[in-house]
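Subject: Predicted fold for Transthyretin-like protein 46, 147 residues

User T.R. writes:
Posting the sequence so we have a shared reference for the thread.
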Amino acid sequence: LLLRMKSLYVLLFSSLAFVVYARDQTVGVRGTLMCGSEPLSDAEVKLWELDTWPDPDDELATVRTDKQGRFEIHGTENEFTSISPVLKFYHRCNNKGLFNIPKLCKRKLTYEVPSSYINSGKNVGKWYEMGTVNMEAKQKGEGTECL
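User M.O. replies:
I've generated the structure tokens; pasting them so everyone works from the same file.
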């Protein structure tokens, strides 16, 4: 019983140490999505922070592109180690669809955000300017999300 209590105290103390040393980290991204020569409006853009097991990945924010295909997204995560931010784009540009039903599925593309754009604290200090990205061509590692 004494050994169990000691183990419990060590685990509790270790957990508190991680909480004390964790820090807020923020990332922000701006860009424009195109579908060929047309702006890609109403595409869903999600900012995720990827974690390793057993800590699940965290969705930090979700936005949709405007009529000109523009988006601006930012999010904050409190982590002990440096965060690993990625953008996930969900869109229907050049989408043939499942069973040739074009609106049934969305194309899904994941894009890593460079670590040099992670800011300490809760404010975006340095935005990652992604520029204009044409989503027409299928990319390596691209997936599909249906319904």
